[in-house]
Amino acid sequence: MSDLLLHIVLVQPLIPPNTGNVARLCAATGCALHLVEPLGFSLEDRQLKRAGLDYWEHVTVSVWPDFRHLQLAMGPRPFHLFSSRVKRPYTQAPYGPGDMLVFGNEENGLPDDLLLAHAECTYTIPMWGAVRSLNLSTSVGIVTYEALRVIHGF
Q1: CATH number of 7-152: 3.90.79.10, 3.30.300.20, 3.10.20.80, 3.40.1280.10?
Q2: Which end of the chain is more exposed for a tag (fewer CB within 10 A), N or C?
């Protein structure tokens, strides 16, 4: 897994089409997709498969029982968490090859204990107006392409 550019982590995702869209993004960018249980759907879900189209064979997908198991398996690599509950913008993250980009679910975001334990590496996508949060797959796309821009300098 270390030869992949980035590792996209969805913690307890709930909505199949969002995860399918993120899988398609991973296929387009050469990133791995990690899903942390519990999932709000089956990996055989029709909407999940449809959103990912025929790109599933081009995505490395791993499922983990919890975030700790993922961390142990991935070893000491940098990770960046994303939440609407912090102030530091995602453009300030020190992205590098092999980093993990960690996103919470569509209803609650990342668990509080994870945010508290890793406040120093938690970022947000700034928003103005009355909107509380962006769609999960939109957020993943914004951050992934910013990380790729930083890594590749484009």
Answers
A1: 3.40.1280.10
A2: C
